[in-house]
Amino acid sequence: MAKKVKQDNDAGEEIVEASTIQCDYCKNRTGSSLVFCRICKRWFCNSTDVRQGSHIFLHMSYTRHYQALSHKESVLKGSRFKCSCGNSNIFDLYYRMVNGAVKIRCLPSCLSKNALEDKAFDMDLWKPIVDDRRLTPAICTIPNVTEYCSILSAQRISQYEHQRIANKSLRIEDVVVNDYSQVRHTQQEYDDSLAYYKVFEPLIRIEEYDQRQSSLVDGDKHVYVSFFREHHKQGYHPVAVFEIHMTEYSRGITQWDNLEDLDQDQDDEYFEKKKSSQGSKCNRADEHENLVEMMENQNQLDEEILQTNDYENLLTSRIEYTGKVKKIKSIRPEVNLFECRLVITSKEIPRNVSAYKNGYYDVRLQEAGTSAARRLTAIKLLDDEKAISQHIYNIFLGNKSMMNKREFYVSHRDREVSFDAPNLRPLNRSQHDAIAYALQSEFTLIQGPPGTGKTAYRNDPKHLWRFKTPGPVLVCTPSNVAADEICARIHRTGVNVVRLMAVSKESMESPVQELCVHIKARELMKAEASELLAIQTRHDDGEEIEEADWRHFMKESGKYKRRVIQSADVVVSTCDSAGSPLLSGCVFNSVLVDEASQATECETLIPIVHGAHRVVLVGDQKQLQPVVLSAVCKRAGYDVSLFERLIDSGMEPQLLCVQYRMHPALSVFSNHKFYEGRLEDGIGEANRPLIKFCYPNTKVPLLFWNVKGRESIGNTGSSFLNVQEATAVVNIVKELMQCGIKEKKIGVITSYTGQKVLLKNLLQQSRLGKVECASVNTFQGREMDYIVLSCVRSNPMRIIGFLKDPKRLNVALTRARFGMIIVGDTSVLKYNDLWKEYLSYHQALNTLVDGSIGHWQVSAL
């Protein structure tokens, strides 16, 4: 392993000792159980003393370091974990023993192609290298526990890996594990804003902390960086040039973004000498093939080091740089590859190490982290009577006596007038009644089950409140996609609406580009301040802009953006963007939050504290909750939306009860299981005719195909995939297309990212790339003519994870308009009460089947 430094003599001198190869977590030294991480140059063992996974598994999962080499004493004899096609992501790799030798192939490119094209191919002969949250013992043995294992936990390992990014000398035994025992659970009712703050302030900070820790492993790994001296008017400054894959970052990188921690492992002299011979190639950054070649040279070099058993010569000192993006340009748009030019603003270098050496580095994006600050600010504004009305304040805190009241008088004649918006479908009775109620109430909840037309209320919010409320209306939603859709719908009614984007999103193309505040502000600048527009134009053309000029432009352009906002009748943004400085001082008497059941409480509060006197929250507490990363916050109830809490407290929502999406047979189960049978079908079977697909029950466009698959770990180490199910899904898609269904009318959904990645790859290999494949989460609020759902989970322990969540099942089952096909393993699913009930529903319809497509056999539970 690397050399270690310790202080152990009276004079305090540093004594350097060569340590033996050992696991960085537990100090285990059993060679056959050790694996070498090629990214961070550390060893980890396959010990399974931590319930969440073996040490090497947890390291790769938390750090996203997927490239590894075996130990010389293992069955792989010190060779790399790598497919013959070049794929070295250990989570993608499968193995097979042939005549005592280990053959390794990857799933995405090689095995999946064989499974699709060769009917005789037996996938069961290949086993995943990473299985059951460890490396399979046939490849990497499981060692005995050491004394250090007693202090290990998944939380300690996670914190160690994240803290080690900033402190490379940190030891895992020195990590202080966060104590969350004093965190309070959320409540139904709060005495005052202070009590509310005491509960939510820690939760906001914990969630932000976990998000930041997660973002630390975002970015490109092992990127070749070249350094130059660049002249400017104050002299010279160092510049780093490298290539990045934009998809590796949480958002698109733009000029003047901060990139931090360009970390480099300083290898032994032999290693550095080998790398330095490649440096000249990096000066031609536009030649991607050269970069690929250099990476292959690097791979060979790692093998040489390990084959010579020169482990002890690897050092752990690292160099870290921070800088601002001066220029970024696209090189290969088809793979989102960009060349980045970074002005170095600070550096941290170990003693006796030269700075600005070309080599392989990790690149990360430094985020500002404004969301938490905006949510905390919103809570503090609860005490400002100008920010929120007293009645809304009381309801927000959960005061039951203030709920379900009609504060405003609206005559019967006004309640019965048409609320239909121009250019859109007329409202049904439940939609009309929901709007009429909102006219009489300061705080309204509208529950919109799938397909019931939740868009009706939001299409013309200015029209909705035309009787009583002066001033502009603020319409918000948790997601940018939904905000764009709402903005487009409102625009079609003829309302003066604008879309406020986050500054980080302004450089990206928007579906409502002409309605965006920054675009309208640019039009004003074109007429009134051409010199400002010239700076913007130069920036858009990729020219280098002095930072002082850019900051001046941002300040002045903000004034034009405020003019655009103040002239609008409706402003649409995400909930977090409602806390933008551009809206500071703006008063919105009327606030409408769509998809409110998918937003955290404090996220929903941000738009409300702009002086709201009327609030409408629209959502469905029977569908998916807000996405919360922190397990601590989830246990404390932070993932319960304000919409759901108020309903649980006794506030009655206005139910939209006519669904227009699904074939009547597709809505039956969800209607009775999740909505007490209160929904009506607004369309009949004639509106959703059946195609000549091989449904086992020719009267019902529904099918559950029982596939006995085998789940395995996905390509990120934090998800699951199922090859047998994925192959079945692709065959179903092909069958639908043979029935005349176009690719764009078919949607493939799954709850697992690993399966989604595999399905996309298989569909692409089958030339079905136009078929949309997405997660259940991202498909909420959307629909498709035909939906194919892959359940994925198939294991002897009968564990189904979050498939047992009723809200997730409800969303998955309510996306299809004409037909729904589910692929899953009934032998696992039937042991969950919810799924057993759903499978029994299929059994009663004779739509639960085994066999192959077109040759179905009715299946029994």
UniProtKB/TrEMBL annotation:
Residues 37-65 are annotated as: CC/SHH/C. Residues 23-55 are annotated as: C3H. GO terms for biological process: nuclear-transcribed mRNA catabolic process, nonsense-mediated decay. InterPro entries: DNA2/NAM7-like, DNA2/NAM7-like_C, DNA2/NAM7_AAA_11, P-loop_NTPase, SF1_C_Upf1, UPF1_CH/ZBD. Residues 15-167 form the Upf1 domain. Keywords: ATP-binding, Helicase, Hydrolase, Metal-binding, Nucleotide-binding, Zinc, Zinc-finger. PROSITE patterns: UPF1_CH_RICH. GO terms for molecular function: ATP binding; hydrolase activity; RNA binding; RNA helicase activity; zinc ion binding. Pfam families: AAA_11, AAA_12, UPF1_Zn_bind. Coiled coil: none annotated. GO terms for cellular component: chromosome; cytoplasm. The keyword Hydrolase applies. It comes from the Eukaryota. This is Upf1 domain-containing protein. It comes from Blastocystis hominis.
